[in-house]
Write a structure and sequence with these properties.
- The protein is an alpha/beta fold.
- It is built from 12 helices and 10 strands.
- It has a 5-stranded parallel sheet, sandwiched between helices.
- It is elongated and about 80 Å long.
- The N and C termini lie far apart (65 Å).
Length: 294
């Protein structure tokens, strides 16, 4: 195996590349891409820009979801002949909602060594920034777009006790948030990460109910429906454990208001802490009377 002594002959290297910020490229990834005989790339034009930046002159071979089936035998033959090949996707870790799994599986079946060169992954980056439990989580990638498959997937998510990571395109974000709120409950917490590691990186956190409201009117809330999105959804059990009674909420609201915090700000803070709708908490705060008005 690769031990900093050059790429090993007849080996497939699965190389993670940056998801935005080029500083996330690892020293090892640069070295491996320079040392292998060829790079199997999802988009040779896109990867070509990365290679140029790091002064890598290794030849590329196009390998994407539309030509993978006919390309695999060719790559296997090169590997059998002793060539070392690196597999890369346009961004992040190959095979994670990207092409690559069929080639990796074919290599394993043929007894060809497969060596991971880890690095950036949008799912993991969003998870650690979400503020939601990392004890157990599942990766669902993109939900089915419509029909029975989508309904079944949403029903399964409603019962899943683990934190769930989803990918979504900007033009489908609001529809997916709306469907999630209806399927798993409006109070379930969600973190919405956008443009991770890039200039306009942002992570929105709150309840599904608030996510639908705010992202439906993105411009009014200073949000931007552009770029790539990662959704981190709180698990069912975590949501149930986070449940809080109205009396408890009123007590916490009163404590914050006694400290000089306005009703609206206290409601916003507690809504985020407990994964509730801001409107729901604010309406409850009105029971505290005029003495504690914002």
């Amino acid at each position: 195996m690769d031990q900093n002594n050059g790429a090993t002959a007849g080996t497939l290297y699965v190389v993670a590349t940056p998801i935005g910020n080029l500083e996330d490229m690892t020293f090892r990834a640069v070295r491996v891409l320079k040392e292998v005989d060829a790079i199997a790339a999802e988009d040779t034009r896109h990867t070509g820009q990365l290679l140029k930046h790091f002064h890598i002159q290794t030849p590329q071979i196009s390998c994407h979801q539309h030509n993978e089936t006919r390309r695999i035998p060719e790559l296997l033959e090169k590997l059998r002949q002793g060539q070392a090949i690196a597999l890369v996707s346009d961004a992040g870790t190959p095979g994670i909602s990207d092409p690559g799994v069929p080639l990796i599986s074919a290599c394993i079946a043929a007894g060809i060594p497969v060596v991971p060169v880890p690095g950036a992954c949008a799912a993991i980056s969003a998870l650690v920034a979400s503020g939601i439990s990392l004890t157990r989580f599942s990766f669902e990638g993109f939900l089915p777009v419509k029909g029975k498959e989508r309904r079944n997937a949403l029903e399964q998510l409603a019962q899943d006790s683990r934190t769930v990571v989803l990918y979504e395109a900007p033009h489908r974000l609001v529809a997916t948030l709306t469907d999630l709120a209806a399927a798993v409950g409006e109070n379930r917490r969600v973190a919405i990460a956008r443009e991770l590691t890039k200039r306009y990186e942002a992570v929105w956190r709150g309840s599904l109910a608030d996510s639908v409201t705010e992202w439906s009117y993105a411009d009014e809330y200073g949000l931007t429906l552009k770029g790539e999105f990662v959704l981190v959804l709180e698990g069912a059990i975590a949501c149930e454990k986070a449940a809080i009674s109205d009396d408890q909420l009123l007590e916490e609201l009163q404590q914050l208001i006694d400290q000089g915090v306005s009703k609206s700000r206290a409601s916003r803070q507690l809504a985020q802490d407990h994964g509730l709708s801001k409107r729901q908490v604010y309406d409850l705060s009105l029971q505290l009377g005029d003495a504690s008005s914002p």
